[in-house]
Amino acid sequence: METKHNLLIVEDEKVISNLIATTLETQGYHYEKASNGAQAMLAVTSHSPEVILLDLGLPDMDGLDIIRKVRSWSSVPIIVISARTEDQDKIEALDAGADDYLTKPFSVEELLARLRSTFRRISYMQSEQGEVSTVFINGELKIDFAAAAAYMGEQELHLSPIEYKLLCELARNVGKVLTHQYLIKKVWENVNVSDIPSLRVYMATLRKKIEPDRENPQYIQTRVGIGYKMNRL
């Protein structure tokens, strides 16, 4: 089987590390393993992984510190795999710079689905490198940033300024989970707004305008208690 991508597994529990490694092997992924933070940082700098699968509870340092250190110089996607299940733990990891969060115990099917989503995002971002693109296309959705206009198919969407800002921020981070506070900061800029219910109202009105089937939304996925993600269709 042809090797697909190079990943880094950062996990101190051997059973889980071996499970992840076996899962990656069956799909043709190449990987390196680290069992603590020091090994992880060395591997990131020496092997340049395309994706990092990171446990937060390491013996020598907190995984959040690793995320912050890596983010100070690299945008490599980081998928957290952790036993910490509280919403606040997930929010802290995502705000620190993680791209996704998977809680233990997890299914190998879900892990592979998150990886596929991450690599689709990488592919999209790489296709944009070297080009000054003013148009974003995802399924039937099109955003013309230069004209400050959005369309569903051939029909222009009538969005409020807040709805348009939300849509653009999700589009620029397609495939990545954005927390409530991140969106509030970006959309309301320097205004000290922490009204998550208002954000939910605007997101609900935006969804009514872009989702063909409101009962089964395709474009915007809710991460309950955490935030939102735009799916790459």
UniProtKB/TrEMBL annotation:
Q: Which SMART domains match?
A: REC, Trans_reg_C
What molecular functions are annotated in GO for this chain?
DNA binding
Specify the Response regulatory domain's residue ranges.
6-119
- The entry's DNA-binding region feature spans 133-232
Modified residue 4-aspartylphosphate is at which positions? D55
Give the SUPFAM superfamilies listed for this entry.
C-terminal effector domain of the bipartite response regulators, CheY-like
Lineage top rank: taxon: Bacteria
Alphabetized UniProt keyword annotations: DNA-binding, Phosphoprotein, Transcription, Transcription regulation
Q: Where is the OmpR/PhoB-type domain?
A: 133-232
Biological role: May play the central regulatory role in sporulation. It may be an element of the effector pathway responsible for the activation of sporulation genes in response to nutritional stress. Spo0A may act in concert with spo0H (a sigma factor) to control the expression of some genes that are critical to the sporulation process.
- Name the chain's protein: Stage 0 sporulation protein A homolog
Task: Give the organism, scientific name.
Answer: Eisenbergiella tayi
